[in-house]
Structures
1.
Amino acid sequence: MRLIFLGPPGAGKGTQAARLVEKHGIPQLSTGDMLRAAVAAGTPVGQKAKAVMDAGGLVSDEIVIGIVADRIEEEDAQKGFILDGFPRTVAQAEALDTMLAGKGLKLDTVLELEVDQSILVNRIIKRAADAKAAGQPVRKDDDPDVFKQRLDAYNRDTAIVAPYYRQRGQLVAIDGMKSIDQVSAEIDSALDAVAAAG
Ligand code: AMP
């Protein structure tokens, strides 16, 4: 199964993707996690990405597409994968289509978590507080001001990715305002419907 999670930062993509990993035994490919690892390791990619990420902007399509192209070649991604945080631009969506077509593969579905953006800043403040309370590192870009930049980047560059997939009949909208368990249940039903249709 090859899936994409779309939705603004803080919508719950990472949480829901992690649940599907357990259920379906396929990896979650989070470009944010991959970039944070590259920054922590001080690789050339990480050095290029750091300042942009700290400011809440988008890393260049070229870098991110390269990372994903390499990652989907790895052994654990051969049965399928869940993309979280990618594609974030139409250019990335087109590049993904080309990558998959080159391998004779296609996406099963694209799940869009729909949320009211006015709740997201509070959600992110809570995510930072929870991480701190658990003794985990707090993401630098979970600062409220940087978060607003991430939301602006989403509305400017990423919001048009959902219509890209809707036009192709690949998009399923999920109500992301419900509880985590309710959202998971809605996702499970959507995936059952996709499997039954396919
Ligand atoms: P995330 O963990 O998905 O919220 O991503 C954290 C940050 O990594 C974003 O604010 C961007 O700076 C960068 N990033 C992650 N994925 C992408 C992507 N597909 N395209 C461009 N930048 C990305």
Note: The two ends are 11 Å apart (CA to CA).
2.
Amino acid sequence: MSNEQLVTPVFPLGELFESPYFNGDVYRQPLVPQNDLNCPTSNITFAPGCINNWHSHAGGQILLCTNGRGWYQEEGKAAQELNPGDVVQIPADIKHWHGAAKDSWFTHISISTNIQAGGTDWMEPVDLEEYNKLA
Ligand code: MN
């Protein structure tokens, strides 16, 4: 396999996703719509430096990291670097954020779990002074 094949995204970039809860450009390609399977799944791509606000999911969330380098942080814990192949299991109602590293695009597949429990509770933006300290 060539290097080019290794970095070619498997799923489409999708459309620019307009949201007040992200601080930069983010693209979304729905892969599994909200249907009887009850497990909405999307390919999400963050431009370098783009992250989302603190938030929580009433039913939890799974992130499957596929491209680039990013970060995930739960409130009260150190931020954890994300690379392709990493799987993040986010429990219900845990306050967290995720997104790209300052200098890298980042793509993860987002799986919304247990959505019968409710939606996403969006909160304040991440302190960019803290984000900018991340290596
Ligand atoms: Mn989340």
Note: The pocket of manganese (II) ion is lined by residues 55, 57, 61, 90, 96, 98 (CB under 6 Å).
